[in-house]
Design goal:
It is a single chain. By secondary structure, the chain is an alpha+beta fold. It has a single domain, classed as Alpha-Beta Plaits, CATH 3.30.70.20. Helices cover about 20% and strands about 35% of the residues. The mean pLDDT is about 95.
């Protein structure tokens, strides 16, 4: 299972995650921050759990280029 976590309140809106993983991330028109699609929010941490391993590589790429390091990706 792939687990992606986004600490959204620390997002600076650089858009790199959307460019590398557009199926997982989108920029909010309200505040210009990243949104982890289909995720659940718990105290500012937005988490997506998926059995779709096709999202793993793009999500790892997005986590590596994030300048504020707020994206975590796990394969459990």
């Amino acid at each position: 299972m792939v687990v992606i976590t986004l600490q959204r309140n620390k997002c600076i809106g650089c858009n790199y995650c959307v460019e590398l993983a557009p199926n997982q991330f989108q920029m909010s028109k309200k505040d210009g921050k990243s949104v982890l699609l289909h995720s659940k929010d718990k105290k500012g941490f937005h988490t997506l759990k998926s059995k779709d391993y096709e999202i793993l590589e793009p999500s790892i790429s997005a986590s590596k280029v994030c300048p504020v390091k707020i994206i975590r990706v796990k394969d459990i």
